[in-house]
Amino acid sequence: MTDCDTPKRPLRPRTLQVRAGLNRSNFSETSEALFMTSGYVYGSAAEAEASFDGSLDRMVYSRFKNPTVAAFEERLAAVEGAEACRATASGMAAVHAALVCQLKAGDRVVAARALFGSCQWIIADLLPRFGIEAVFVDGTDLAQWEAALSQPTAAVFLETPSNPTLEIIDLAAVAELTHRAGGRLVVDNVFATPVLQSPLALGADVVVYSATKHIDGQGRCLGGAVLGSAAFCNDVLAPYLRHTGPALSPFNAWLLLKGLETLDLRVERHAANAMKVARFLETRPEVARVLYPGLESHPQHDLAKRQMKGFGGIVAFELKQGKAAAYRLLDALQVIDISNNLGDAKSLACHPWTTTHQRLAAEAKLAMGIGEGMLRLSVGLEDADDLVDDLAAALGAP
Protein backbone atom coordinates (compact mmCIF):
# COMPACT_ATOMS: atom_id res chain seq x y z
CA MET A 1 0.00 0.00 0.00
CA THR A 2 1.02 3.60 -0.43
CA ASP A 3 1.32 5.62 2.77
CA CYS A 4 -2.03 7.34 2.16
CA ASP A 5 -3.76 3.97 1.81
CA THR A 6 -2.33 2.33 4.92
CA PRO A 7 -4.35 2.68 8.12
CA LYS A 8 -2.31 3.17 11.28
CA ARG A 9 -4.26 0.41 13.06
CA PRO A 10 -3.76 -3.33 12.44
CA LEU A 11 -6.02 -4.91 9.83
CA ARG A 12 -7.87 -8.21 10.10
CA PRO A 13 -7.26 -11.13 7.71
CA ARG A 14 -10.38 -10.51 5.58
CA THR A 15 -9.22 -6.95 4.92
CA LEU A 16 -5.63 -8.01 4.29
CA GLN A 17 -6.80 -10.42 1.58
CA VAL A 18 -8.14 -7.41 -0.33
CA ARG A 19 -5.82 -4.58 0.67
CA ALA A 20 -2.35 -5.85 1.60
CA GLY A 21 0.40 -5.23 -0.93
CA LEU A 22 -1.55 -2.53 -2.77
CA ASN A 23 1.01 -0.10 -4.20
CA ARG A 24 -0.74 2.21 -6.64
CA SER A 25 1.14 3.77 -9.52
CA ASN A 26 0.93 7.44 -10.47
CA PHE A 27 -2.34 6.61 -12.28
CA SER A 28 -4.07 5.81 -8.94
CA GLU A 29 -5.73 2.67 -10.33
CA THR A 30 -8.30 0.78 -8.24
CA SER A 31 -7.26 -2.71 -9.36
CA GLU A 32 -3.62 -3.66 -8.95
CA ALA A 33 -1.45 -2.74 -11.93
CA LEU A 34 0.02 -5.50 -14.09
CA PHE A 35 3.69 -4.84 -14.85
CA MET A 36 4.53 -7.07 -17.81
CA THR A 37 8.19 -6.19 -18.11
CA SER A 38 11.39 -8.19 -17.97
CA GLY A 39 13.75 -5.29 -17.25
CA TYR A 40 13.97 -1.74 -15.91
CA VAL A 41 15.69 1.45 -17.06
CA TYR A 42 18.31 3.34 -15.04
CA GLY A 43 18.79 7.10 -15.07
CA SER A 44 22.55 6.77 -15.13
CA ALA A 45 25.40 4.26 -15.10
CA ALA A 46 25.98 5.07 -11.44
CA GLU A 47 22.35 4.28 -10.65
CA ALA A 48 22.70 0.91 -12.38
CA GLU A 49 25.81 0.14 -10.32
CA ALA A 50 24.07 1.11 -7.07
CA SER A 51 21.09 -1.03 -8.01
CA PHE A 52 23.25 -4.12 -8.50
CA ASP A 53 25.47 -3.66 -5.43
CA GLY A 54 22.40 -3.27 -3.21
CA SER A 55 23.00 0.26 -2.02
CA LEU A 56 19.89 1.35 -3.96
CA ASP A 57 16.72 -0.66 -3.36
CA ARG A 58 14.92 -0.83 -6.70
CA MET A 59 13.82 -3.27 -9.42
CA VAL A 60 16.62 -4.53 -11.65
CA TYR A 61 15.23 -7.62 -13.43
CA SER A 62 11.93 -9.47 -13.16
CA ARG A 63 13.66 -12.78 -12.50
CA PHE A 64 14.72 -11.15 -9.21
CA LYS A 65 11.79 -8.89 -8.44
CA ASN A 66 8.75 -7.43 -10.20
CA PRO A 67 6.17 -4.95 -8.86
CA THR A 68 3.16 -7.22 -9.46
CA VAL A 69 4.92 -10.28 -8.04
CA ALA A 70 6.06 -8.23 -5.04
CA ALA A 71 2.46 -7.16 -4.40
CA PHE A 72 1.35 -10.80 -4.37
CA GLU A 73 4.21 -11.74 -2.03
CA GLU A 74 3.40 -8.92 0.38
CA ARG A 75 -0.31 -9.74 0.42
CA LEU A 76 0.17 -13.47 0.98
CA ALA A 77 2.72 -12.80 3.74
CA ALA A 78 0.22 -10.53 5.48
CA VAL A 79 -2.55 -13.13 5.23
CA GLU A 80 -0.25 -15.92 6.44
CA GLY A 81 1.22 -13.85 9.27
CA ALA A 82 4.75 -14.37 7.91
CA GLU A 83 7.60 -11.90 7.91
CA ALA A 84 8.35 -12.53 4.24
CA CYS A 85 7.27 -14.43 1.14
CA ARG A 86 8.94 -15.40 -2.13
CA ALA A 87 6.83 -16.47 -5.09
CA THR A 88 7.74 -19.20 -7.58
CA ALA A 89 6.54 -20.45 -10.93
CA SER A 90 4.67 -23.44 -9.47
CA GLY A 91 3.97 -25.24 -6.23
CA MET A 92 6.62 -27.86 -6.93
CA ALA A 93 9.15 -25.10 -7.61
CA ALA A 94 8.30 -23.78 -4.14
CA VAL A 95 8.77 -27.19 -2.49
CA HIS A 96 12.05 -27.79 -4.33
CA ALA A 97 13.44 -24.34 -3.55
CA ALA A 98 12.39 -24.39 0.11
CA LEU A 99 14.36 -27.59 0.64
CA VAL A 100 17.35 -27.33 -1.68
CA CYS A 101 18.22 -23.74 -0.78
CA GLN A 102 19.11 -24.84 2.75
CA LEU A 103 20.65 -28.29 2.18
CA LYS A 104 24.12 -29.59 1.31
CA ALA A 105 25.85 -32.94 0.93
CA GLY A 106 25.99 -34.78 4.23
CA ASP A 107 22.75 -33.26 5.56
CA ARG A 108 19.81 -35.31 6.72
CA VAL A 109 16.12 -34.79 5.94
CA VAL A 110 13.20 -36.44 7.72
CA ALA A 111 9.80 -36.48 6.03
CA ALA A 112 6.35 -37.86 6.54
CA ARG A 113 5.68 -40.87 4.32
CA ALA A 114 2.29 -39.63 3.11
CA LEU A 115 3.24 -37.07 0.47
CA PHE A 116 2.18 -35.92 -2.97
CA GLY A 117 4.00 -38.00 -5.57
CA SER A 118 6.33 -35.23 -6.79
CA CYS A 119 7.23 -34.21 -3.22
CA GLN A 120 8.04 -37.81 -2.44
CA TRP A 121 10.27 -37.99 -5.54
CA ILE A 122 12.25 -34.90 -4.55
CA ILE A 123 13.02 -36.30 -1.11
CA ALA A 124 13.39 -40.01 -1.90
CA ASP A 125 15.05 -39.81 -5.34
CA LEU A 126 16.54 -36.38 -5.98
CA LEU A 127 18.12 -35.34 -2.68
CA PRO A 128 20.09 -38.59 -2.18
CA ARG A 129 21.79 -38.01 -5.57
CA PHE A 130 23.52 -35.04 -3.92
CA GLY A 131 24.56 -36.87 -0.77
CA ILE A 132 21.56 -35.91 1.36
CA GLU A 133 20.11 -38.65 3.55
CA ALA A 134 16.32 -39.07 3.42
CA VAL A 135 14.37 -40.74 6.23
CA PHE A 136 10.60 -41.36 6.10
CA VAL A 137 8.26 -41.87 9.04
CA ASP A 138 4.58 -42.46 9.63
CA GLY A 139 3.51 -38.83 10.07
CA THR A 140 0.79 -39.65 12.60
CA ASP A 141 3.15 -41.61 14.89
CA LEU A 142 5.00 -39.24 17.24
CA ALA A 143 7.19 -42.09 18.46
CA GLN A 144 8.57 -42.49 14.94
CA TRP A 145 9.21 -38.75 14.69
CA GLU A 146 10.99 -38.81 18.05
CA ALA A 147 13.21 -41.73 16.99
CA ALA A 148 14.04 -40.21 13.61
CA LEU A 149 14.79 -36.80 15.12
CA SER A 150 16.98 -38.15 17.91
CA GLN A 151 20.01 -37.25 15.77
CA PRO A 152 20.97 -34.01 14.01
CA THR A 153 18.66 -33.17 11.11
CA ALA A 154 18.81 -30.22 8.73
CA ALA A 155 15.19 -30.15 7.57
CA VAL A 156 11.84 -31.81 8.13
CA PHE A 157 9.11 -31.85 5.49
CA LEU A 158 5.46 -32.78 5.81
CA GLU A 159 1.97 -32.15 4.50
CA THR A 160 -1.01 -31.83 6.80
CA PRO A 161 -3.65 -32.67 5.73
CA SER A 162 -1.70 -35.01 3.46
CA ASN A 163 -2.35 -35.71 -0.21
CA PRO A 164 -4.47 -37.76 -0.82
CA THR A 165 -5.14 -39.62 2.44
CA LEU A 166 -5.77 -36.50 4.58
CA GLU A 167 -3.57 -37.55 7.48
CA ILE A 168 -3.29 -34.89 10.18
CA ILE A 169 0.12 -34.40 11.79
CA ASP A 170 0.69 -32.73 15.16
CA LEU A 171 2.55 -29.61 14.01
CA ALA A 172 3.47 -28.27 17.42
CA ALA A 173 4.94 -31.60 18.55
CA VAL A 174 6.91 -32.16 15.34
CA ALA A 175 8.17 -28.57 15.39
CA GLU A 176 9.54 -29.04 18.90
CA LEU A 177 11.31 -32.26 17.91
CA THR A 178 12.67 -30.65 14.74
CA HIS A 179 14.17 -27.71 16.60
CA ARG A 180 15.66 -30.02 19.19
CA ALA A 181 17.41 -31.81 16.31
CA GLY A 182 18.71 -28.48 14.97
CA GLY A 183 16.53 -28.36 11.85
CA ARG A 184 13.87 -26.30 10.13
CA LEU A 185 10.31 -27.57 9.78
CA VAL A 186 8.89 -27.04 6.26
CA VAL A 187 5.11 -27.51 5.99
CA ASP A 188 3.12 -27.90 2.80
CA ASN A 189 -0.13 -26.20 3.84
CA VAL A 190 -1.91 -26.41 0.48
CA PHE A 191 -4.93 -28.48 1.58
CA ALA A 192 -5.61 -26.28 4.61
CA THR A 193 -4.75 -22.89 3.03
CA PRO A 194 -3.81 -19.94 5.27
CA VAL A 195 -7.51 -19.58 6.05
CA LEU A 196 -7.82 -22.85 7.97
CA GLN A 197 -4.36 -23.49 9.43
CA SER A 198 -1.38 -21.38 10.53
CA PRO A 199 1.73 -23.59 10.68
CA LEU A 200 4.06 -20.73 11.62
CA ALA A 201 1.97 -20.02 14.73
CA LEU A 202 2.30 -23.70 15.66
CA GLY A 203 6.09 -23.67 15.44
CA ALA A 204 6.87 -24.34 11.77
CA ASP A 205 9.73 -22.40 10.21
CA VAL A 206 8.72 -22.42 6.54
CA VAL A 207 5.35 -22.78 4.77
CA VAL A 208 4.97 -23.69 1.10
CA TYR A 209 1.98 -23.42 -1.21
CA SER A 210 0.93 -24.45 -4.65
CA ALA A 211 -0.90 -21.20 -5.31
CA THR A 212 -2.27 -22.97 -8.39
CA LYS A 213 -4.81 -24.55 -6.06
CA HIS A 214 -7.11 -22.58 -3.72
CA ILE A 215 -5.23 -19.27 -3.92
CA ASP A 216 -6.01 -18.97 -7.62
CA GLY A 217 -9.07 -21.14 -7.11
CA GLN A 218 -10.36 -21.06 -10.67
CA GLY A 219 -7.97 -23.26 -12.62
CA ARG A 220 -6.38 -20.35 -14.49
CA CYS A 221 -2.67 -20.38 -13.76
CA LEU A 222 0.33 -21.96 -12.05
CA GLY A 223 2.13 -20.42 -9.09
CA GLY A 224 3.85 -21.20 -5.82
CA ALA A 225 5.02 -19.48 -2.67
CA VAL A 226 7.48 -19.97 0.17
CA LEU A 227 6.91 -18.08 3.44
CA GLY A 228 8.95 -17.74 6.61
CA SER A 229 11.19 -15.38 8.49
CA ALA A 230 12.79 -12.43 6.75
CA ALA A 231 16.21 -13.92 7.47
CA PHE A 232 15.33 -17.22 5.77
CA CYS A 233 13.52 -15.70 2.79
CA ASN A 234 16.07 -12.94 2.14
CA ASP A 235 19.37 -14.57 3.07
CA VAL A 236 18.85 -18.27 2.33
CA LEU A 237 16.02 -18.57 -0.19
CA ALA A 238 16.32 -15.39 -2.29
CA PRO A 239 19.86 -16.05 -3.60
CA TYR A 240 18.80 -19.55 -4.66
CA LEU A 241 15.76 -18.23 -6.53
CA ARG A 242 17.73 -15.38 -8.08
CA HIS A 243 20.37 -17.64 -9.57
CA THR A 244 18.22 -20.65 -10.54
CA GLY A 245 15.29 -18.72 -11.99
CA PRO A 246 11.93 -20.33 -11.06
CA ALA A 247 10.31 -16.89 -11.31
CA LEU A 248 6.56 -16.33 -11.17
CA SER A 249 5.07 -14.62 -14.23
CA PRO A 250 3.72 -11.12 -13.44
CA PHE A 251 0.47 -12.04 -15.17
CA ASN A 252 0.08 -15.12 -12.97
CA ALA A 253 0.91 -13.01 -9.92
CA TRP A 254 -1.86 -10.60 -10.89
CA LEU A 255 -4.35 -13.48 -11.15
CA LEU A 256 -3.23 -14.80 -7.76
CA LEU A 257 -3.66 -11.34 -6.22
CA LYS A 258 -7.26 -11.33 -7.41
CA GLY A 259 -7.72 -14.87 -6.11
CA LEU A 260 -6.58 -13.86 -2.64
CA GLU A 261 -9.39 -11.30 -2.45
CA THR A 262 -11.99 -14.06 -2.18
CA LEU A 263 -9.93 -16.88 -0.65
CA ASP A 264 -11.71 -17.17 2.69
CA LEU A 265 -15.17 -16.91 1.13
CA ARG A 266 -14.38 -19.73 -1.27
CA VAL A 267 -12.63 -21.95 1.28
CA GLU A 268 -15.58 -21.69 3.66
CA ARG A 269 -17.96 -22.86 0.90
CA HIS A 270 -15.55 -25.62 -0.18
CA ALA A 271 -15.48 -26.89 3.41
CA ALA A 272 -19.23 -26.71 3.92
CA ASN A 273 -19.86 -28.60 0.68
CA ALA A 274 -17.15 -31.16 1.50
CA MET A 275 -18.73 -31.92 4.87
CA LYS A 276 -22.09 -32.59 3.23
CA VAL A 277 -20.53 -34.80 0.57
CA ALA A 278 -18.42 -36.70 3.13
CA ARG A 279 -21.44 -37.39 5.34
CA PHE A 280 -23.37 -38.65 2.32
CA LEU A 281 -20.54 -40.98 1.26
CA GLU A 282 -20.42 -42.46 4.77
CA THR A 283 -23.98 -43.72 4.26
CA ARG A 284 -23.25 -45.62 1.06
CA PRO A 285 -22.76 -49.41 1.20
CA GLU A 286 -20.38 -49.28 -1.80
CA VAL A 287 -17.90 -47.18 0.19
CA ALA A 288 -15.42 -48.95 2.46
CA ARG A 289 -14.18 -45.78 4.20
CA VAL A 290 -14.35 -42.01 3.92
CA LEU A 291 -11.40 -39.82 4.88
CA TYR A 292 -12.31 -36.27 5.83
CA PRO A 293 -10.90 -34.51 8.93
CA GLY A 294 -14.30 -33.09 9.80
CA LEU A 295 -15.85 -36.53 10.29
CA GLU A 296 -15.84 -38.04 13.76
CA SER A 297 -14.64 -41.28 12.11
CA HIS A 298 -11.39 -39.67 10.95
CA PRO A 299 -8.44 -41.11 12.95
CA GLN A 300 -7.10 -37.63 13.81
CA HIS A 301 -10.40 -35.79 14.08
CA ASP A 302 -9.65 -34.39 17.55
CA LEU A 303 -6.21 -33.15 16.46
CA ALA A 304 -7.72 -31.53 13.38
CA LYS A 305 -10.20 -29.67 15.58
CA ARG A 306 -7.35 -28.38 17.76
CA GLN A 307 -4.97 -27.13 15.07
CA MET A 308 -7.32 -26.22 12.21
CA LYS A 309 -10.06 -23.59 11.96
CA GLY A 310 -11.99 -25.76 9.47
CA PHE A 311 -11.52 -29.00 7.59
CA GLY A 312 -11.05 -28.01 3.95
CA GLY A 313 -12.56 -29.04 0.67
CA ILE A 314 -10.82 -32.37 -0.07
CA VAL A 315 -12.48 -35.74 0.57
CA ALA A 316 -10.95 -39.16 -0.09
CA PHE A 317 -12.96 -42.35 -0.15
CA GLU A 318 -12.30 -46.01 -0.87
CA LEU A 319 -14.69 -48.17 -2.87
CA LYS A 320 -15.07 -51.79 -1.78
CA GLN A 321 -14.75 -53.20 -5.29
CA GLY A 322 -11.42 -51.57 -6.07
CA LYS A 323 -10.13 -50.02 -9.28
CA ALA A 324 -12.95 -51.24 -11.51
CA ALA A 325 -15.56 -49.62 -9.28
CA ALA A 326 -13.53 -46.41 -9.09
CA TYR A 327 -13.35 -46.22 -12.88
CA ARG A 328 -17.09 -46.89 -13.22
CA LEU A 329 -17.86 -44.08 -10.82
CA LEU A 330 -15.52 -41.59 -12.52
CA ASP A 331 -16.90 -42.40 -15.97
CA ALA A 332 -20.51 -42.02 -14.75
CA LEU A 333 -20.09 -38.57 -13.22
CA GLN A 334 -21.94 -35.78 -15.04
CA VAL A 335 -21.27 -32.72 -12.89
CA ILE A 336 -17.93 -33.55 -11.28
CA ASP A 337 -14.99 -33.55 -13.72
CA ILE A 338 -12.12 -36.03 -13.86
CA SER A 339 -8.98 -33.98 -13.20
CA ASN A 340 -5.83 -34.19 -11.11
CA ASN A 341 -6.05 -30.53 -10.06
CA LEU A 342 -7.71 -29.42 -6.83
CA GLY A 343 -8.92 -26.30 -5.06
CA ASP A 344 -10.89 -25.22 -8.14
CA ALA A 345 -14.33 -23.64 -8.16
CA LYS A 346 -15.42 -26.75 -10.06
CA SER A 347 -15.55 -30.13 -8.31
CA LEU A 348 -12.82 -32.47 -9.54
CA ALA A 349 -12.15 -36.16 -8.94
CA CYS A 350 -9.13 -38.35 -9.63
CA HIS A 351 -7.82 -41.86 -9.03
CA PRO A 352 -4.49 -41.40 -7.17
CA TRP A 353 -3.31 -44.98 -7.77
CA THR A 354 -3.11 -44.37 -11.52
CA THR A 355 -2.55 -40.59 -11.68
CA THR A 356 -0.93 -38.44 -8.98
CA HIS A 357 0.90 -41.37 -7.34
CA GLN A 358 1.23 -43.65 -10.38
CA ARG A 359 5.05 -43.73 -10.38
CA LEU A 360 5.23 -45.19 -6.87
CA ALA A 361 5.52 -48.93 -6.39
CA ALA A 362 2.37 -50.69 -5.24
CA GLU A 363 3.96 -51.37 -1.85
CA ALA A 364 4.76 -47.68 -1.38
CA LYS A 365 1.22 -46.64 -2.27
CA LEU A 366 -0.27 -49.13 0.15
CA ALA A 367 2.13 -47.96 2.87
CA MET A 368 0.81 -44.43 2.32
CA GLY A 369 -2.78 -45.67 2.67
CA ILE A 370 -3.61 -45.39 -1.04
CA GLY A 371 -5.65 -48.32 -2.30
CA GLU A 372 -6.71 -49.20 -5.85
CA GLY A 373 -10.28 -48.25 -5.00
CA MET A 374 -9.44 -44.81 -3.56
CA LEU A 375 -10.73 -41.62 -5.15
CA ARG A 376 -9.74 -38.07 -4.24
CA LEU A 377 -12.51 -35.52 -4.55
CA SER A 378 -11.84 -31.79 -4.59
CA VAL A 379 -15.24 -30.39 -3.67
CA GLY A 380 -16.05 -27.19 -5.53
CA LEU A 381 -18.49 -24.32 -5.20
CA GLU A 382 -21.51 -25.88 -6.88
CA ASP A 383 -24.72 -26.55 -4.96
CA ALA A 384 -23.83 -29.38 -2.59
CA ASP A 385 -27.09 -31.18 -3.32
CA ASP A 386 -26.17 -31.39 -7.00
CA LEU A 387 -22.83 -32.93 -6.06
CA VAL A 388 -24.53 -35.47 -3.81
CA ASP A 389 -26.99 -36.31 -6.58
CA ASP A 390 -24.14 -36.75 -9.05
CA LEU A 391 -22.26 -39.09 -6.74
CA ALA A 392 -25.42 -41.05 -5.89
CA ALA A 393 -26.17 -41.62 -9.56
CA ALA A 394 -22.57 -42.58 -10.32
CA LEU A 395 -22.41 -45.00 -7.40
CA GLY A 396 -25.54 -46.70 -8.72
CA ALA A 397 -24.32 -46.87 -12.32
CA PRO A 398 -23.99 -50.36 -13.84
How far apart the termini lie comes to 57 Å
Please provide the count of β strands: 12
Give me the side-by-side strand order of the main sheet.
1-7-6-5-4-2-3
Multimeric organization: single chain
Account of the protein in words:
- This protein has 2 domains: 9-260, Aspartate Aminotransferase, domain 2, CATH 3.40.640.10; 264-395, Alpha-Beta Complex (Aspartate Aminotransferase, domain 1).
- 39% of the residues lie in helices and 14% in strands.
- The chain has helices at residues 13-19, 45-53, 67-80, 91-100, 117-129, 142-148, 171-180, 193-196, 230-244, 250-260, 263-282, 301-307, 322-332, 362-367, 384-395, and strands spanning 84-88, 108-112, 133-137, 155-159, 184-188, 206-210, 224-228, 287-291, 314-319, 337-338, 348-350, 374-378.
- The strands form 2 sheets. Strands 1-7-6-5-4-2-3 form a 7-stranded mixed β-sheet, with helices on both faces. Strands 8-9-12-11-10 form a 5-stranded mixed β-sheet.
- The chain starts with 12 loop residues before the first helix and ends with a helix.
